[in-house]
TrEMBL record:
Purpose: Specifically methylates the guanosine in position 1516 of 16S rRNA.
Upper classification of the organism: Bacteria, Pseudomonadati, Pseudomonadota, Gammaproteobacteria, Oceanospirillales
Localization of this protein: Cytoplasm
GO cellular component: cytoplasm
Organism: Billgrantia pellis
Name of the protein this chain belongs to: Ribosomal RNA small subunit methyltransferase J
Gene from which this protein is expressed: rsmJ
Annotated S-adenosyl-L-methionine binding sites: 86-87, 102-103, 159
Catalysed reactions, semicolon-separated: guanosine(1516) in 16S rRNA + S-adenosyl-L-methionine = N(2)-methylguanosine(1516) in 16S rRNA + S-adenosyl-L-homocysteine + H(+)
Entry keyword annotation includes Methyltransferase: yes
Length: 240
């Protein structure tokens, strides 16, 4: 289990607060339930991902619109802050080739495990075949990581960490776990700069609906949702 072994470099894991283990046929990241909630796992086959794949709204979903997926247009996407791969899976389910970049080794291990399990399921195998996983820090290595992949960087998608305002205690505990491992993404302006250098067509940044844009150039367009929005930085139009 080389992915799990590599994740021991993460600080919280090194202090023994969180552990990677096999549970119910998959890899999970677990800690004190009172602090972190249920064990965290990546599942593209069942649960939230399955429901969103079947009933999520297709190309009308906010992330799909922001990334430019429309009739006859399916750009390739670099998800430079992959997290649990939820947005990347939506984009791949709509036909996009997606490179997922994750810098936290333990989260990368969860993603690799989730992709491997989904590749064995007939309903998701074709989708995850369009998802390509890389381990690295996009803030400092984005150009190199993209150059080493087969995915063209037409669109770069960023979802930097931000204060979570949802009321669910479970969500708050999940975000607490992420912050324990990844920090608060204080380098988001540098990440945006790197993304603007690499993207050929646009950069899209997910933000809380009322939060200010990331420090740097002003976005050209904004797509608002109920609780979040996408700031769009456009180099050129996407075409069929």
């Amino acid at each position: 289990m080389s992915g799990a072994d590599a994740s021991l470099r993460d600080g919280a894991l090194g202090r023994g607060e969180l552990t990677l283990r096999r549970e119910a046929g998959g890899l999970v990241l677990a800690g004190d339930p009172a602090r972190y909630g249920k064990p965290l796992r990546v599942d593209f086959v069942e649960g939230r991902a399955a429901h969103r794949r079947r009933f999520g709204g297709g190309r009308g979903q906010l992330v799909a619109r922001a990334c430019g997926l429309a009739a006859g247009i399916t750009p390739s996407v670099i998800d430079a802050t992959a997290g649990l791969g939820r947005d990347a899976f939506v984009l791949a389910s709509l036909g996009a080739e997606v490179l997922l970049i994750e810098r936290v080794a333990s989260i990368h291990a969860l993603l690799a495990d989730g992709l491997a399990r989904a590749a064995r399921d007939p309903e998701t195998a074709a989708i995850v075949a369009r998802m390509h996983l890389a381990h690295g820090d996009a803030t400092h290595e984005l150009a190199a990581l993209v150059a080493a992949s087969t995915v063209a960087p037409q669109v770069v998608h960023l979802d930097p960490m931000f204060p979570h305002r949802e009321k669910s205690a479970l969500v708050k505990k999940e975000m607490r776990l992420f912050r324990e491992l990844a920090g608060n993404d204080s380098d988001a302006p540098r990440l945006l700069e790197a993304a603007l250098d690499v993207a050929t067509h646009r950069v899209v940044v997910k933000r809380p609906r009322k939060a200010p844009p990331i420090e740097g150039p002003a976005p050209h367009h904004v797509i608002d949702g109920k609780t979040s929005r996408y700031d769009l930085y456009v180099h050129r139009s996407l075409k069929a």
